[in-house]
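Researcher: Quick one. four chains, 408 residues in total.
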Amino acid sequence: MAVQARERLLTAAEDLFYAEGIRAVGVERILTVSGVGRASFYRHFASKDELVIAVLTRTDERWRAWLRETITGYGLPAGERPIAVFDALGEWLDGAGYRGCAFINAMVEAADRTSPVHEVAVAHKDAVTDYLDRLLAEAGRDDHENLAPELMLLVEGALVTSLREGTSEGAARAGRIARVLLARQPDPRDAVRRRLRVVTGGIR
Amino acid sequence: MAVQARERLLTAAEDLFYAEGIRAVGVERILTVSGVGRASFYRHFASKDELVIAVLTRTDERWRAWLRETITGYGLPAGERPIAVFDALGEWLDGAGYRGCAFINAMVEAADRTSPVHEVAVAHKDAVTDYLDRLLAEAGRDDHENLAPELMLLVEGALVTSLREGTSEGAARAGRIARVLLARQPDPRDAVRRRLRVVTGGIR
DNA sequence: TGCGATCGGCACCGATCGGTACCGTTTGAT
DNA sequence: ATCAAACGGTACCGATCGGTGCCGATCGCA
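Model:
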């Protein structure tokens, strides 16, 4: 066997699910494309749903690793890294074939909020938000806790816009908004808290 | 007949499609909920797909009418109307049951960009963008052509965020970003174009 | 009262859905 | 060379998919 059946199933399913939707792709299609027998499929995965979760989990890990490496690869100073996320997003969308975000799509298709598929998708979004938070903190933004969800909202906007318009323009547009957002001084109330922290540190 | 069969089919389908997804809801479910016979269904709609399009078209018209009336109903000066879109969005999301935007969902489920369902969804988004453009122009923003797609991206972000987080917080968050965006002076290059237009007008 | 349109109920169609059981073959390690 | 694990192929399962045809009841209107 050139490649293990499990691996072929995962890659075939990943492509088909992303291109046509999870519900739209039957097990039969996955078997034909992957060249795996029906019995072998159910030896590796208890159900189609379990395959879906395995695919999403793998995509999550790979995509976030790709994002981290891409940002790091730019070799930018810490202060410019948060905004670079939107450059990376533009790169990715240019190569993705414009079917938006696999995890937004999964959340939409798995309507039930309590379903495992929906939860995996939400967990992915939380992980990306955490990454944004880390980039902002490393950039010295004391207001990173407020900014991270805002940048994440811009990321979601860019992803949906790219699906809608069929181009990667949304990423550039979101990037411009992010620049405006980051150019602004932090909220004065945050500044007070920051000063308090400094003072407290000085007393010790 | 209390209400026409067609009307009952449309409302039942609208609710079911939004709550559970288009593909997830079979014709049988719609018939049971609406209390319409199978034959009657196909007397009104040539196929399930045609019902989907009719539902989306009606939802589009209703939703945009609701948005217009809500914004108008606020009784705000023209300058504050663009930002009020996000207040309206928050109101709507609080009553929507957090399954995001029916049109984003439709775009995701109808993967094929050339499919009629996908096109209706895109047309809705274009119409909302046009409305934003109009609000911005009426607010005296000369840069409305650039701002409208940016506000629309924020709207998309708010809708996805609400689906993801299960609250209407995304609308408020997008509104805060929009305020920052609108508080900024228009792009200097636009200012040049604006002045040129004034000069040209003066020569005539 | 009578007529035609609209209606709901039901049986039925082929296709496909996710999933199971059993088959003989191929593979890699010993 | 041997043997067990992993494999692909296929027949089959009940359920559901979207869609058609026919029936008798009910409706609004003249």
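Residues 197-204 of chain A have pLDDT under 50 and may be disordered.
Researcher: Thanks, that's what I needed.
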